[in-house]
């Protein structure tokens, strides 16, 4: 299936909903620039992309993914979502994304470094603090950001820490960044529990994806006393109706084991996990998890998209008809890029901001952004999804910027 084509349908829906003119919506149908290269490492060649999708609101911004299934269709979709996410988050960025079709889990450190440096060599002319600013994404981290920064700086001949975010502290990173996606997701999940579930007692939670974001978010929700009944990683899930001991499961996972090997629960498949009876289902793995095949079997009351694009277009409609509320990715996982923005701003001004201040700022932004989306959703009294409300707000801000830039007529 073509993920990008699927997503353009969501854009068309918003164009219809808001009566957006053809010449305006056309600006968002395709990327500004697709950069492709083949990274040659020894006798291997890895396809790599950096796609700048839109820059009306500012430089490109978005992560780099290393994964064996990366494709141009996927990177372009991720870049498109970054455009909307950055706009909705009210930060001064356009949107971009990168990816390398490569499995870092099968690589040693030497190869990982070589791929990261080769990526910077291939695309350094496209990157820069005022041009396009990468960050971590699936299977990439601060270490990889360091190699890309170092290689970039060698190429351009000056220091420029603001060309990338998610860096280690010593290279200009900020402590808050590592669990920012989870922290933001946690805040909007709490809002959804309050508004959609009316602060129901004993909220049951299921989490698909026990990697970085999913794991931190599960810990936060468990610490609040919510009952986490199932979690999964790429190898499968573990289910315990009485509630899992999340702290013990984290220790187990951190010792290198798969969650479905954990003894205090029943091993289940990822497909079974998605269909469990639960209040909240957090999707923190990859794209295309809920499709027309399984949407009808979903029993969660609220779905939180911590991953990008876990639900396909047609499945949105099925879930909507079943009155399942989806907190969309561009809102739910925006904590990561919001904190990236703090890091970038700090790198540019040279000022150091207190962690507490930034934590509060993230909190405030997430709650305000949730409120704007939820208000719009209520305004249309449930005739649209939260995703449509979020897309509508995001698209309007971008198109206003395009008008000021004179790319479309002002009236
Ligand atoms: N990869 C993250 C995302 O999908 C973060 C992007 C960033 O910080 O630029 O939102």
Automatic annotation (TrEMBL):
Keywords: NAD, Nucleotide-binding, Oxidoreductase. GO terms for biological process: L-glutamate catabolic process. The active site is at 97 (proton donor). InterPro entries: Aminoacid_DH-like_N_sf, Glu/Leu/Phe/Val/Trp_DH, Glu/Leu/Phe/Val/Trp_DH_C, Glu/Leu/Phe/Val/Trp_DH_dimer, Glu/Leu/Phe/Val_DH_AS, Glu_DH, NAD(P)-bd_dom_sf, NAD_bind_Glu_DH. CDD domains: NAD_bind_1_Glu_DH (cd01076). The record marks 137 as: Important for catalysis. GO terms for molecular function: glutamate dehydrogenase (NAD+) activity; nucleotide binding. The keyword NAD applies. NAD(+) binds at residues 181, 212. Residues 175-406 form the Glutamate/phenylalanine/leucine/valine/L-tryptophan dehydrogenase C-terminal domain. It holds the Pfam family ELFV_dehydrog. SUPFAM superfamilies: Aminoacid dehydrogenase-like, N-terminal domain (SSF53223), NAD(P)-binding Rossmann-fold domains (SSF51735). The keyword Transmembrane does not apply. Signal peptide: none annotated. Substrate binds at residues 61, 85, 340. Belongs to the Glu/Leu/Phe/Val dehydrogenases family. This is Glutamate dehydrogenase. It comes from Candidatus Falkowbacteria bacterium CG10_big_fil_rev_8_21_14_0_10_37_18.
């Amino acid at each position: 299936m073509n993920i990008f084509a699927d997503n353009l349908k969501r854009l068309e829906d918003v164009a219809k909903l808001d009566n957006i003119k053809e010449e305006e919506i056309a600006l968002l149908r395709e990327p500004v620039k697709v950069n492709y290269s083949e990274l040659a490492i020894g006798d291997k060649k890895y396809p790599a992309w950096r796609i700048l999708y839109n820059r009306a609101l500012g430089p490109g911004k978005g992560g780099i993914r290393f994964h064996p299934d990366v494709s141009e269709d996927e990177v372009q979709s991720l870049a498109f979502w970054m455009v909307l996410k950055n706009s909705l988050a009210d930060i001064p960025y356009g949107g971009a994304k990168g990816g390398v079709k490569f499995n870092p889990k099968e690589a040693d450190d030497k190869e990982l470094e070589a791929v990261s440096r080769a990526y910077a060599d291939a695309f350094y002319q496209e990157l820069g603090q005022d041009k396009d600013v990468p960050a971590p994404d699936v299977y990439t981290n601060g270490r990889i950001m360091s190699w890309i920064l170092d290689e970039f700086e060698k190429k351009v001949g000056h220091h420029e820490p603001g060309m990338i975010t998610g860096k280690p502290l010593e290279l200009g990173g900020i402590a808050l960044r590592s669990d920012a996606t989870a922290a933001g997701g946690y805040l909007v999940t709490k809002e959804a529990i309050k508004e959609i579930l009316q602060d129901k007692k004993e909220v049951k939670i299921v989490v698909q994806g026990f990697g970085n974001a999913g794991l931190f978010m599960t810990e936060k929700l468990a610490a609040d006393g919510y009952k986490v009944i199932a979690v999964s990683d790429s190898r499968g899930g573990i289910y315990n109706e009485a509630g899992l001991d999340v702290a013990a499961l984290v220790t187990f996972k951190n010792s290198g084991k798969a969650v479905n090997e954990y003894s205090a629960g029943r091993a289940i498949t990822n497909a079974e996990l998605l269909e469990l009876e639960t209040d909240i289902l957090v999707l923190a793995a990859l794209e295309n998890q809920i499709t027309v095949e399984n949407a009808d079997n979903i029993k969660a009351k609220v779905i939180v998209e911590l991953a990008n694009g876990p639900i396909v277009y047609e499945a949105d409609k099925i879930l909507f008809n079943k009155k399942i509320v989806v907190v969309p990715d561009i809102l739910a996982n925006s904590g990561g890029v919001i904190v990236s923005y703090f890091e970038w701003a700090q790198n540019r001004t040279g000022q150091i901001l207190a962690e507490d201040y930034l934590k509060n700022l993230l909190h405030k932004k997430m709650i305000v952004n949730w409120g704007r989306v939820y208000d719009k959703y209520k305004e249309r009294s449930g005739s649209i999804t939260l995703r449509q409300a979020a897309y509508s707000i995001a698209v309007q801000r971008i198109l206003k910027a395009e008008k000021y830039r004179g790319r479309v007529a002002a009236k």
